[in-house]
Every structure is written in C-alpha cells, then in structure tokens.
C-alpha cells in the first residue's frame, strides 16, 4: 500500500513541478519543448531494459527488442532534432 | 533507500534541464541536460538490475539510436510535426510492448492488482497513442487526406469502442490469469485500442493538428507513467508525468488560441458557417475603391512596394500558407531588406500559425530570421495602431476581424492579430478564399488593403525586386504614402493548395 501511495505522490508531484515549469516556456520554444519531452517520454527504455533483467523467453526477447528499438529511436531522435532546431535560432546584435 | 536519492537526483537534473527552456540558447543547454538525466537513468537501471542478454540488448539499442539519429539529422522544419507525431507513436509502441510483456510473463511472480491495472492502462493508452499518432503523422506529412473523415455515427462508435475496451479489460483482469486466454484477451484489447486511436484521429482536420499532436504528447507521457507504475519504477513515473503535464499545457494553449473547447475539437464539432447574415461589418464597410485608384499605378505590387518604402514600422504576419508556398526564405529576406532601409520590422506570430505549437517560429528560424524580431500575439497587438504596413503572408483566419466584429461565426471570440488596425495592409495570399474556418475575411474588402494574390514565393519575390529597384534607382521619388488605396485583384493562377490558413 505504501508503494502505491508513494507512486501516486511521485506522479502528482512530477506533474505539478512539470506544469509550473512548462507554463513559463515562451511560445517560441514550444516546438523544441514538445520534441524534447517526446524524447523524455521514451524513458520507457528503462522498462524495456528491465524486461531483460530476468531470463526471457524467445517471444519476450522479440517484443522487448522491438521496445528497445522504438524507445531508443525516440530518445536519440528526439534529443538530436531538438538540438538541431535550437541551433537554428539566431539573434543578431541590436546595434546594426 | 540510497536508490531513492539517486532517483531524486536524476529527476532534479531533468527538472534543471526543463527549467532552462526560456531562451533558445539556454534551451539548447537544457536539452543536453535532460539527455544527460536520461543517460544517468539508464546507467542507474543497468547498475541496479543488470541485463542478461547483453549482446541482443546492445545491438537493438544501437539499431534504434542510429535510426533515430539518421532521421533526426535529415528532416527539415516543415516535416517536423510529422516527425514528432511519428515519435509519439514510437513512444506508444514502447509503452505498449513493455506493459504487454509485464502482464504476460510467467517467469516472475504475477503482478499485484494495482500494477496489473496500471499495465492494462499503459497497454491501452500506448496502443491508442500509436495508431492515433500514425494517422496524425500521415496527415501532417500529406500522405493522408487532410480533411476530417467522418464515419457514420462517429461519436457512438467511439463510445462503443471504449465500452468494449473496458469490458475486455475487466474480463482479462478477473478471469484470465495466465496462458493463452490471457494473451488472447490482451491481443483483443490492443486491437481495440488501435482501432480507437484511428477512429479518434481520422476525424481531426489539418488545422486542428496542433491540438491533436499536443494531446498525443500528453498521452504518450501518460502511457509511460502507467508503465512505470506497473513495474514500480519511480523514474518512469516522474518522467512520464512531466511529459503528460507538458502535453496538457500545450493542448490547452492551442485550444485557447483557437477559442475552441477540447471536446469540440475531438467530438468533431467542426466550425460550420452559421446560417443567416454572417458579417454585418463586412457588408457595411467596403468603400468604393474606384475613386482613388485612378491616379495610382495600376500594379498593386508597385503600390505595395511604395507603401513599404514610405513606412516606418512594418509588421509581418506569416501563416502556414507561407510554409506551403516555401516562401519563408523570401519573407525573411524581405524583412532584412526593410531593416536595411531603416524600417522597424517585427514578425507577429499567432499561436496556431503552423501545424504544431511554435511551428512558425521554427520555420522562420530555419530561414535564419533574427529571433529578436519575433513577437507573440499579446505583446504585438497593441502596436498595430502605430504600424504603417501590416504584411500578411499566407494567413487568413488569424487576422480575420470577423472574429471580433461578428458574433455568430465559428471564429467569433478567437484572439486574432489586429492587422486591421494598421494604416495599410498588404496581403500576399494564394487566393481570396476564406481560411479553414470558412469565414470570409472582411479585411480583404477593406479600402486600406492591397491584395497580392498568387504564389507567395513569387509575390514576395516581386515585392523585393520592386524595393531593390528603388534602392538602387536614382533620385528616389519620395512619394508620400498615399493613405486609402484601392483594392485590386490579380487572377489566381492555380489552386493546388489553400494559402489561407
């Protein structure tokens, strides 16, 4: 029971902190924000890795393997594209 | 207990990363910080639990990474929404598969009831996010029809589908303990959820995509969080919840920017033109254009260039039509040209100008705009009154004064950019047709508006040539800006797309 309670607390706290931080992100950065949070949502990679912490059947290997591929696709793709996007933003000096 | 502190530390790094999303430069650091947090999380899991099939895991991890990196370095900014939607789908698949294996594996002790429920939810949300995202991605990439697809009794279908899923879920939880029965019932649930995602997404049209993609962002995070509850992993829960929060905020921002409710968007309440007299203002205002046009040069492009030359302050309003016409380069260069002529140039960007939140900013950044000139709706709207020329490129609904003047249109109450308050308006749209909302734009009929219809890349290019010609031309005939100008129409060359957003 304690575990469940702790998990609910973590969920609510993370949602609240995330909300408080993200509400202040300027509109200009909303696309990079979404693509970064998308990469973060691929933390399911942890779950996919944990599947392999115990002996697995062949079917589980296949499913777990696909889960790792898609999650890693998301993690790497998400962070790389966000970095590329943010790198495009350029500001010229006011004194022209 | 030390595990808890390590998890908290990782979450703090992640929070620090998100907190840096204030300016583009800081955000780039923040992105790397978040990536580092995720790397730490992976290392923590590997150290704590170990992995048995190291070669297999390493190979698939490298495979996924290479694929992700390869795609990410190749997409251009107009493809970003499709790419992000596709990634939401990939996240959904990962959550779905992890939940499925957790539910079915019999090598470890069976899941506790809470974990089982969470895993079922992760399974359903993951599967629906997957199929919904693929539909969204297809629409955004223009592989699927952009217009909403309505099935007969669409809402009832959605509700029935949900009901079936709930019944199946309860049944799977109560009766099927293990083995083939369980796998079959779960497979049925996955199939049902996939269908749910499809039915849900096909009805959402092109211009509502910013809402859908934000919503899928939230559900992908939610699926990850449920996955985390199922396997009792705190990091997964925290990260998933953060993403869910982010997606919820963006969904809300997009809905507000369109003045539509979430249920309205998702229940297919597409704005339809109300019956009866729509625009009293539009009918009343048009002044007779002919009186002044006689003395002026016939070519609206030349007159628009004259206006720009005489202007002190110009506000450019880009819409998705600009992106479709691949005119962002031209528009940004025009802005630079005007800046070089000592004009004050700003870009006013409506929150829904694009296919996902913030899309227009990224499109302009790709064209190397000076992002110091980009302004949000609330910051720029007061400035139109002191603006000489509002230059609209490929936007319609977001500058439609009917949103304010008329009370019975689908866009009434939607916040708009007040281009109509500027002294002059130049519109570079493909045609005069109404935007996505279907509401005719009285701005086009206004006597201070010059319409330059046609492909925006070409019209903005011509505008630049006119300006250029003058800059190098001898003895600038400093014409005083002649206020009320005639409206002029150029024949629309072809209508492959609707430039009006």
Q: Mean pLDDT across all residues of chain A, rounded?
A: 90
Which regions of chain B have little confidence, pLDDT < 50, spanning 5+ residues? Answer: 272-295, 473-501
Strand content of chain A: under 5%
Note the run of SSEs of chain B as H and E.
HHHHHHHHHHHHHEHHEHEHEHEEH
Structure class of chain B: mainly alpha
Across the major sheet of chain B, the strand order is 3-2-1-4-5-6
Q: Work out the oligomeric state of the chains in this entry.
A: heterodimer
Q: What fraction strand of chain B?
A: 5-15%
Main beta-sheet annotation of chain B: 6 strands, parallel
The assigned structural class of chain A equals mainly alpha
Number of helical segments of chain B?
Answer: 19
| Biggest contact | A-B, 85 and 114 residues
Task: Please describe what this structure looks like.
The complex is a heterodimer of chains A (96) and B (501). Chain A has four helices and no strands. With 96 residues, chain A is an all-alpha fold. Chain A starts with a helix and ends in an 8-residue tail after the last helix. The mean pLDDT of chain A is 90. Chain B is elongated. Chain B has a six-stranded parallel β-sheet with strand order 3-2-1-4-5-6. By secondary structure, chain B is mainly α. Chain B has helices at residues 2-19, 24-49, 54-72, 80-104, 113-140, 154-174, 179-202, 209-231, 234-258, 262-266, 280-284, 290-293, 300-310, 320-324, 328-340, 359-366, 377-380, 402-405, 456-472, and strands at residues 313-318, 344-349, 374-376, 389-393, 424-428, 449-451. Chain B starts with a helix and ends in a 29-residue tail after the last helix. Classes of the chains: A mainly alpha (96), B mainly alpha (501). Chains A and B meet through helix 1, helix 2, helix 3 and helix 4 of A and helix 1, helix 2, helix 3, helix 4 and helix 8 of B.
